[in-house]
Amino acid sequence: MTVRHPGGSASFEILGEDHTLGNALRYIIMKNPEVEFCGYSIPHPSEEKMNIRIQIYPEYWEHTKPYDALMKGLDDLADLCDHITHAFKEARDNFVEPGDNSEQR
Amino acid sequence: MDDYDTIYGSDRGPQITIKEADSRHAQIVLSNCDLAFANALRRIMLAEIPTIAIDIVEIQTNTSVIPDEFLCHRLGMVPLDSTNIDDKLIYTRDCFCDQYCERCSVTLSLHARCTGEDNVTVYARDLVIAEGAQLGSPVINDPEGQGTVICKLRKGQELRLKCIAKKGIAKEHAKWAPTAAVGFEYDPWNKLRHIDYWYEEDAKEEWPKSKYADWEEPPIEGEPFNYDAVPSRFYLDIESAGSLPPDEILQQGIKYLQEKLAAVIETFSNKNETGDGFGDGVRSPGQDYSMGGMGGGGAGYETPYQGGRTPFGGGGFGGATEYGGRLMGGHKCVAAVAMG
Fold first, then answer.
1. Which residue of A has its CA nearest to B312?
2. Contact at 8 Å (CB) between B237 and B25?
3. Cβ contact (<8 Å) for B258 and A81?
């Protein structure tokens, strides 16, 4: 992974990742109110590279770096996964097969 | 939950409802969720959940009409029981054995011969799994208990072979896919106009209603188009190939998404000694590459042109995994790797 542009904006290159992570991460980073812009791109389909660009609003430059927004995005996505796991387990435990309960795992 | 309010405000975040489920498929509704996450989940369930599949075949006798490599391919596609694979098997690339061992592989043998006048059909059930194996038995779901057809033998024809099944993911080869298909749908009434239906005279008359249409309110006639609307309910239909039950597929999907995140976090944390994200790897646009390493156990930088090898070992052209292919030369018997 490599970083470009110091300051309020940066691009990160993540090797071995694709749209699976790219789009979800982009979305979650954009949810951060301090982030002005976040976009990702896979420049060439036969190169396993995913570039993600983050720009922070100037008023937050003092205390938030693009790196922090990226790390927060990754953490938020992990929290979202935890939440989904929880929601799924709940749904699964409440699910009753109509007329049959042999499929309960 | 925890940090969660900061992302989703005061609402409760994504919800899951199970519509239908049995041992082979599950229909779930993911509501209050975003497209990017739902799609990430779909993609990971299709391509990145590990299962076990036959990877190397050592053929002693094959006098059937099917050529060796054809047979190997068929064997590779047979779904094998992969429940709780993470506790039972490791990847061969992470194992310290020379070729394969019981920590990273499961051996199945097949011996069939046609002696009578009638042709014999060889089924997946005829694969005999090595004693003590914790997983990897052929998946059999048909009422006759036979499993998939491997080949047919005429009088005098014989098949004698040994299969080595290994752990892998569908990104390397589709035989490792836990899902046969993942249905993914949203906005059954096309309120968002993400689809432009082709029609002869009237699209409403000519197109069938979505099977999820009853789960959402039909549009009101003359309703103004909402330009801010985004999809938030997703209908997923997980169809298992047999190696894993659908609930495990979903849970593993989330798990592996988190492992991806963890790998990226770890790599960044290791690189970032200065604390601002600009560790040793800074480069300006247009500057020549100085390649950084990569997380997640991958092989790091590879040129895309040499052999088309992925960090997962595979690659379409040679038809051999990095680990499996190497083994073949050392064997006296006819061998081929079960990859398409």
1. A16
2. yes
3. yes
* CATH number for the domain running over B52-176+312-337: 2.170.120.12
Q: Which of B2, B7, B266, B306 to mutate to test the interface with A (most CBs of A within 10 A)?
A: B7
Q: Does B119 touch chain A (CB under 8 A)?
A: no
Express each pLDDT in A13-52 by its tens digit. Answer: 999 999 999 999 999 999 999 999 999 999 999 999 999 9
Instruction: Give the CA diameter of chain A.
Output: 62
Strand partners, A54: A10, A38
In a domain? residue A101: no
pLDDT of residue B221: 87
Say whether pLDDT at B249 is over 70.
yes
Interface test with A, best of B8, B15, B264, B273 (most A CBs within 10 A): B264
* Average pLDDT of chain B to the nearest whole number: 82
**CATH number for the domain that contains residue A44:** 3.30.1360.10
The number of C-beta contacts closer than 8 angstroms across A and B is 169
CA distances from B214 to A35, A97, B27, B187 (A): 38, 20, 14, 11
Q: Which residue has the tokens 């990160």?
A: A12
**A37 contacts A26 by C-beta, under 8 angstroms:** no
Cβ atoms of B1 and A67 closer than 8 Å: no
Interface of B with A in 209-248 (CB under 8 A): 245, 247
Domain at B2-48+179-246, CATH class: alpha beta
Using alpha carbons only, what angle is made at residue B211 by residues B205 and B217, rounded to the nearest 5 degrees?
A: 80
pLDDT in tens, B43-85: 999 999 999 999 999 999 999 999 999 999 999 999 999 999 9
